[in-house]
Structures are given as structure tokens and as C-alpha cells.
Amino acid sequence: QVQLVESGGGVVQPGRSLRLSCAASGFTFSGYGMHWVRQAPGKGLEWVALIRYDGSNKYYADSVQGRFTISRDSSRNTLYLQMNSLRAEDTAVYYCARARNTWTQTYLDYWGQGSLVTVSS
Amino acid sequence: QSVLTQPPSVSGAPGQRVTLSCTGSSSNIGAGYDVHWYQQLPGAAPKLLIYANSNRPSGVPDRFSGSKSATSASLAITGLQAEDEADYYCQSYDSSLSGVVFGGGTKLTVL
Predict the structure, then answer these.
(1) How far apart are CA B48 and CA B42, in angstroms?
(2) Are A9 and A119 a contacting pair, CB within 8 Å?
(3) For tag attachment on chain B, is the N or C end more exposed, with fewer CB atoms within 10 Å?
(4) Which pLDDT tens digit goes with each residue over B3-13?
(5) What b-and-e string marks burial along B41-70, b requiring 16 or more CB atoms within 10 Å of the CB?
(6) Which phi-psi region, left, alpha or beta, contains residue A8 (left: φ > 0; alpha: ψ -120 to 50)?
(7) What chain B residue is nearest to A4 in terms of C-alpha separation?
(8) Of A12, A15, A14, A8, which is closest to residue A79 (Cα–Cα)?
(9) Counting Cβ atoms within 10 Å, is residue B12 exposed (0-12), middle (13-18) or buried (19+)?
(10) Which residues of B89-100 are buried (b: 16+ CB within 10 A; e: fewer)?
(11) Which residues of A touch B93 (CB under 8 A)?
(12) Residue closest to B48 by CA, chosen among A41, A4, A115
């Protein structure tokens, strides 16, 4: 069965960095694109980034462009999100999810349980 | 303000039929991009409910159905059950933003 397990969340000061990981199992990781989606406390879902199955293309939401970097290591079946210059408004639960279909018709068929990132001094 | 507009709340009695709407524009739903729906139970991660406008993943009851027309989409739930109480989100792609977009979500209350 498909499993996605996020880790790396925690409390971090504004302006600092944090890296999230998402360990994938139960499917051929190298054959699928992967998303990061976040949800601020009590708020709705916000898409963050997508990386194609082979890492050749990466897409970002305007709110994180230039500060966050999505990457993957298919030898480790792991997805990453490097978050730099963190702001209070980045506080959220971060979910990794498997991507299906093409970039413009993509949907997210399996989700992890989420990892909470709190940006606070 | 979300690009896709959903009513904040909807309610219905057990056994009833409810419809949740998702209104977009010519740069997303109206441009022909698919709409997908997710269910988020309290304290849980989102779960895919409907993909590509009207398709149900394996394991999703046929009480859930989706449709799309012009610049909007709808999720219908028939035979409402207590366990359907959750937040529901629509999702599509927006060409103006060049990115994936979610609706603000609808909280469904089963009376």
C-alpha cells in the first residue's frame, strides 16, 4: 500500500531555514511526480510545489518562489522541501502527496499525514 | 481570497442529498482544466474523492459524484451519513497563476 511519511517539522525562528522530508513506500517512487501542499492552522489548503517524476521540472507557488526548493532522491525514495528565509505566514502543516496526470491536469491521489512547521521567535 | 470559490458551509440531514459548488473563471475551470475534489475529516489529512471532474477512485462510495459545467463544478452527496461530516475542497489548475489552485473549502455539517 502507498505510504507517505513526512518528517523534519518543528519550531524555527523567522529568517531561519528548515528541511522537510517525505519517505515514500508501496509504489515506484521514481515513476511519479510529487507535490507539497500546506495548511495554516484553521485555514484551507494551499499548493506549494511540484516536482516531476525525474526531477527535470519544478513548479512553485508565488508565495514561496525563490525561498523554497523542492527536490527528490529516488535512490532513497524520499522527497524534500528546503525552506529558507522562513516567515510567520509559513506556519502550517505541510503535506506531501503523490501527483497524477499531467502538470495542468494534475491531482493528488495519496497524501501523507503532515508535518507541522511553526515559525516564531 | 481563493481563485476557486466555495461556500464556507453547507448542512443537511441524514439521508438527504446535498450539493457543494466550486466556482472558477476563464483561466481555470472555464479554460478546460479538470476539477478534483478532496475530503478532509477532522484531524486527518485530505483524501482524494473525485478526480477529473467525475471519476471516483477505488473505494469511494457511489454516493459521491462530481460534475463540471462552464466555469463551475459541483460535488453531490446522496444518502448523507454522519461520517460525511468533513471539509471538502475543490482543486484545479490556473493558467494566469501558472499553478495548482484550491478552493477555500466547504464545511459540511450533518444535522
Answers:
(1) 15
(2) no
(3) N
(4) 999 999 999 99
(5) eeeebbbbbbbebbebeeebeeebbbebee
(6) left
(7) B45
(8) A8
(9) middle
(10) bbbbbbeeeebb
(11) 103-106
(12) A4
Q: Which has more pLDDT, B2 or A46?
A: A46
Q: How far apart are CA B62 and CA B51, in angstroms?
A: 13
Q: What is the DSSP letter of A26?
A: S
In single-letter form, the type of residue at position B65 comes to: S
Mark residue A114 as left, alpha or beta (left: phi above 0; alpha: psi -120 to 50; beta: remaining): left
Residue A110 CA to residue A108 CA, distance in Å, equals 6
Instruction: Using alpha carbons only, give the angle A94, B74, B14 rounded to the nearest 5 degrees.
Output: 90
pLDDT in tens, A81-98: 999 999 999 999 999 999
Q: For B10-31, write each residue's pLDDT tens digit.
A: 999 999 999 999 999 999 999 9
> CA B34 to CA A85: how far, in whole Å?
34
**Chain B residues whose beta carbon lies within 8 Å of the beta carbon of residue A107:** 34, 36, 48, 51-52, 91
Q: Both ends of chain B: CA-CA distance in Å?
A: 28
Instruction: Say which DSSP state B56 is in.
Output: P
- The DSSP symbol for B33 reads -
Among A3, A107, A111, pick the best mutation site for testing chain B contact (most B Cβ within 10 A). A107
Find out whether B79 and B15 touch, Cβ atoms under 8 Å.
yes
Collect all residues with Cβ–Cβ distance below 8 Å to B43 and sequence separation of at least 6. none
Query: How far A107 CA sits from the closest chain B CA (Å)?
Result: 7
